[in-house]
Amino acid sequence: MARYFSTFIPGLGEVVQAELKRKLPDLKVELLVDGLVVYETEASIEEVSALRFLNNSFYVFHFFKKVEPNSLVGMMKFVYNSDFLKKMSVPRVKSRDRSFRVITSYQNKLRAVELNVLKNAEEKIAKATRLTLDRSKPDLEFWFLERSEGIGFFALRLTYDRRSEKDLERGELRPELCNLLCILSEPQEDDVFLDPFSGTGAILRERMQIAYSKLFVGEKDKDKFECLKTRFHKNDVEVFQADATKLPLGDDSVNKIVTDPPWGQAEEVEAETLYKGMFAEFSRVLRRGGVLVLLTSQKDIVEEFLKESSDFSLDARYDVLVSGRKAGVFKIRRI
Q1: What is the pLDDT of residues 103-115, one digit of tens each?
Q2: Helix extents (H) in 8-58
Q3: pTM
Q4: Nearest-CA neighbor of 172 among 162, 158, 159?
Q5: CATH code reported for the domain at 167-334
Q6: Are 119 and 113 in contact (CB under 8 A)?
Q7: What is the Cα–Cα distance from 221 to 320, expressed in whole angstroms?
């Protein structure tokens, strides 16, 4: 079995582990900490790389299970001073793997090391792999990582952020988080799905990667609505312009809702007023037994509502950080 490590949205480790086990039946989890999982599987690199709910995944050559702080250089010297590289087998990641570079990371941030140490690592890796050094646009990246949890890795990067922060529109959620929100909704191929606060369509984009029957997409803002119509022009996707407290849908018309309401105030409407009207509509359109997954900064309002509600029950809650802001993910069931 090959060893991998992957990073994910902190706070959702339970969801990630369950989905990994579902996708990779032979999975053996070696370590799970907040935001990172180390595991073994016979699955191919292509299968691991295709897991959309993970931020980045790496093929692990060596797992340093216990390191002291500032051991990054020591890890590098261990790799290139021993016969480790001679025994190392580099898997094929791309159809053309001819060049490489070395990346060094300390506690989740890139960190430079002494030039002679870097050059030694580059020369030894080049000799062992017969790859050509290219520090600007390589085919492959070999990473030395020292983590804050007191562990380290020498690994090959398999994936890159599907969309970097600069590619995201203002307020747009990362695709990995959207994918996890959709997974929490227990997706089925006969789902009639709703996102009434669609914005840029980030959640919808990920839900379309999973089989469904019908998708309803709501957005109050006229400009965003027009963009959504252009982006998601499909027969089984219906885009409408409406307030989430007055949805143009029939009673019991959907069985899954995944959404990210405005954070704080929206167009001078108080959060409590917005959520009261929103939940009233969700109670009307969501079928009994249906699932609502809600990402929100208004955790107290949601909890108070659920305490008093006879229409909804809380299945699970997860505390997460979104762009540095505290938020909650609520999995709620219509009863």
Answers
A1: 999 998 999 999 9
A2: 13-23, 45-49
A3: 0.92
A4: 162
A5: 3.40.50.150
A6: no
A7: 27
